[in-house]
Amino acid sequence: MIRTNPELLTYINELYNKKNNGITEEKHNPKQRVIEQNKRYNWVYIIKKGITKCYLSDENGKDFIQEFLGEGMEFGEIEVFSGNPSFCCIEAITELVVYKISYIDFNTLLENDKKFNRLVIKAMAAKISYKAPRHSYQQSYPIEDNILRLQQLFPKLTEVISKSDIANYLGVTLRSLNRTLNQLKHRNEN
Amino acid sequence: MIRTNPELLTYINELYNKKNNGITEEKHNPKQRVIEQNKRYNWVYIIKKGITKCYLSDENGKDFIQEFLGEGMEFGEIEVFSGNPSFCCIEAITELVVYKISYIDFNTLLENDKKFNRLVIKAMAAKISYKAPRHSYQQSYPIEDNILRLQQLFPKLTEVISKSDIANYLGVTLRSLNRTLNQLKHRNEN
DNA sequence: TTTGTGTTGGGACAAATGTCCTTTTATAAA
DNA sequence: TTTATAAAAGGACATTTGTCCCAACACAAA
């Protein structure tokens, strides 16, 4: 739900502290967009502190939240390899601190630092493997099952994330989310 | 819909023909499973010829098709990096020929062959970036829109892929798929 | 204070989708 | 040929989810 990658963060911290690798730091306020959809960038980011949402919006104004990204999560790296403009939008939810690496420096690290190379690949493998069961579950089960699953995986959910973000994450309307939460509440009372 | 990766296939072909890299060939008949869910393997595969489906099944017997994989597509590589057992099942749809590389040889290539390394990363980036819009679209739009989208992206769909596979790809029941196809047909007749 | 604006919550109804069941057809096995 | 078996198609009904509203509340800006 809120993904993290401590292993990657630790390594980037080391790199940042050790030498001049072209890694810089940047701060963002809540609701600020770090990356916009369909634009081109020359930076790869790694979250040092805070939470963002990663989402796609379509022509009809519907947003679909891919993932909530926490510490150590990388974004903007896919476009280094695909050569495409950004396919999603990254927006800060909390106060956010990110590390920033230019494409050039990122590629240099990839080629010359085996550990970095392996960590980047592992991060991508993780993205692939957590998307699969989520997609599968969301398609196959009703809203209620998905809410219960989320609450179990991440109990503090509603403290951090707004209702409409949760709805957009589950791919349902706010109305449906509220209705289902209500049914769950009443069922627990009896 | 049926993903391919010609660039990777070309390179693996070269490797296979050139020297002894530990790459072997293997054939499978339709409906045969190359990889089963939750099992451990020591092989990475690349499709030389044919089509497979990649799907997750859950406790309740529901199958959700992640993707149809065609020539040049790689599978089993995620587990090299995650260290987990296979998270999906790969089943041949047509006659299938695959290249097979052991984890050891795969890792050796990754470390020593920069082009191979880059192609594997690119393949993973592609997987991430096509999953996102698909997931988004399927969650946000009704079955009809999704069928129309599929028909446009891949007109010969129903010739190759069974109805129930299409339903499992869209995450809907066969009944709903049929109903929607029927509605579309009647609408076109008038 | 008043005036917005965003978030939360829910009523009433419509539309989409699922469940269960039956039939037909094609194709393979005996 | 007969017999199974799987795929395709659809009827009838139940359930889920969406759409379109409106109301209450918090909180910030004027």
From TrEMBL, chains A, B:
Database matches in CDD domains: CAP_ED
One Pfam family hit: cNMP_binding
Segments forming domain Cyclic nucleotide-binding: 21-127
Gene3D superfamilies named in the record: Jelly Rolls (2.60.120.10)
PROSITE patterns linked to this entry: CNMP_BINDING_3
UniProt-listed InterPro entries: cNMP-bd_dom (IPR000595), cNMP-bd_dom_sf (IPR018490), RmlC-like_jellyroll (IPR014710)
Protein name (record): Crp/Fnr family transcriptional regulator
Annotated organism of origin: Aquimarina algiphila
